[in-house]
Amino acid sequence: MKNPHYYHEFLCNSCGKNTIKHNKDKIKPKYCSALCSQKGRIGYKLDQRKSIDKVIASFNKRAVKGSKCWEWKGYINRYGYAILSSRYLKEDKAHRISYIIHKGEIPEGHFILHSCHNKSCTNPKHLRAGTHKENMQDKVTAFRQHFGIDENKIKAIQMIIKSNVFSDDEVAKIFKVTKNCILAIKTSKSALHTRKMKTRSD
Known about the structure:
Blueprint: E1 6-11, E2 18-23, H1 34-40, H2 48-62, E3 63-64, E4 71-72, E5 83-86, E6 91-93, H3 94-103, E7 111-114, E8 127-130, H4 132-147, H5 151-163, H6 168-175, H7 179-201
Antiparallel strand pairs: 1-2, 3-4, 5-6, 7-8
């Protein structure tokens, strides 16, 4: 006869994650993983205040604080975002960690937007929480600032792109902008379309 197995559903004592485990032990587990078990053991669990202090110290070491944008001395990913790993805050983008440190918890489902449109900036004065729609609108604003075009021209470019008559190079020549500008507008439009389709299907 095979040994019986038991299913246990529980909240991890360390991370709070709802977990289901299948094992031979009648006793309900306390932790979802070996890492959480180690954190939960006496002598390994860090005090919450110490954890926050470690994150703040790591952030302050890499943030170049000035009167305007706070540039980043640490790693910047291929998308231009400053990165700071933090197990405690469960975030990796430095501007999001900066928001948490200086302004508090990020509202659920919200993005952290840069008023300066500088992705690597970590100055909390330049950061605000916003919805997906506001994030898309911010991207359009950034296009206007970066490429020097107004909203009417963006709409005209979007109409030409939608017609599929001209190539990206041709559209760029017609409106006297760079091909990167056309690609940026196409990317923004695609993201907005995806969001609309997802909303309709929900």
